[in-house]
């Protein structure tokens, strides 16, 4: 989720939403539990993203990121930032 927060603060909302989806999937796969700090970062990151892009674009990007494996999400981020 921290990578999504960084992307959001650098005004890359679509990339950030994509990373939110990937982070959600990874969190489910490795922990499945709730983390208060992670929840706070997620809440703030999603709010930043949603101020910059339409809801449908946010949803599509999150779903796309969630549907990819971790390696693919990281590669996508590197290409976008490259």
Describe this structure in words.
The chain has 82 residues and is mainly α. Helices cover 83% and strands 0% of the residues. It has helices spanning 2-9, 13-30, 36-52, 55-67, 70-81. Helix 2 runs antiparallel to helix 3 (36-52) and helix 2 runs antiparallel to helix 5. It is globular and about 30 Å long. The protein starts with a helix and ends with a helix.
Write the layout of secondary structure elements.
Layout lengths: L1 H8 L3 H18 L5 H17 L2 H13 L2 H12 L1
Number of strands: 0
User: Helical segment tally?
Assistant: 5
Rounded to the nearest angstrom, the distance between the terminal CA atoms is 20 Å
Low-pLDDT runs of 5+ residues are none
User: How are helices and strands ordered from N to C?
Assistant: HHHHH
Cα radius of gyration in angstroms: 12 Å
Summary keywords:
5 helices, 82 residues, mainly alpha, 83% helix, 0% strand
